[in-house]
Design a protein that fits this description.
214 residues, alpha+beta, Glutaredoxin, four-stranded mixed beta sheet, 9 helices
Length: 214
């Protein structure tokens, strides 16, 4: 049985395929002191829904994305090693995380397996190794992953209903904060929530498009 997201709670949306989700979670001690719920969603489905082309589908943007992730890791002093192939299919490992509770400690361990050790959880060998790391046999890990797929689909559908358009994304007070570099904005708004109700924020949020776009 699946359960609905509690949109009244602070949520943190991620996908294990995202290096910036890893980098943001490694800065967890800087997050606002709020009970953010780690919520896995399928980034490829989010792109598909909004008609976006992923960065990985544009060669020059793909290379820049990897270089930028490495630069940010070095700048922040966070260990970083790309997996052997990217993008990879993250659905099985996110299903596994969900059935294991998807708490911060579990999610961090999986992220580090991928982005600190440079492992690919979408291969049979990588998935089995990750299962062992988490204390599960390969068969138990795969069964857990299968059980989590329905919840993963529901998470993604409900995230889209909340207008999530990428990861990592914080949702706080009904507002979305996208990207690893949005952390200072999240911190500011957690301390000063009235800023989002300021005259200028409301004005720019309601600007019409000069190109007639929605």
């Amino acid at each position: 049985m699946t359960h609905a997201l509690d949109a009244t709670q602070p949520l943190w949306f991620y996908d294990f395929v995202s290096p910036f989700s890893y980098l943001l979670l490694e800065q967890h001690e800087k997050w606002p002191n709020l009970p953010f719920i780690p919520t896995p969603v399928l980034l490829r489905e989010i792109y598909r829904h909004w008609g976006q082309r992923s960065a990985y589908g544009v060669p020059a943007k793909r290379w820049f994305t990897y270089r930028h992730a490495l630069f940010r890791a070095e700048q922040l002093g966070i260990p970083f090693k790309m997996p052997p192939a990217h993008p990879f299919d993250s659905s099985a490992v996110m299903g596994l995380a969900l059935t294991m509770g998807a708490d911060t400690a579990c999610v961090r361990e999986i992220f580090r397996f991928i982005w600190r050790e440079g492992r690919d959880p979408s291969t049979a060998e990588g998935f089995a190794s990750l299962g062992e790391r988490l204390g599960l046999s390969d068969g138990a890990a795969r069964a857990a992953s299968d059980e989590g797929q329905a919840q993963l689909r529901r998470n993604t559908d409900e995230a889209l209903a909340l207008e999530v358009f990428g990861v990592p994304t914080f949702r706080l007070g009904g507002q979305l904060f996208w990207g690893e570099d949005a952390l200072p904005m999240v911190l500011y708004c957690a301390r000063t929530p009235n800023w989002l109700e300021s005259k200028e924020v409301k004005r720019i949020s309601a600007l019409p498009s000069g190109l007639g776009l929605d």
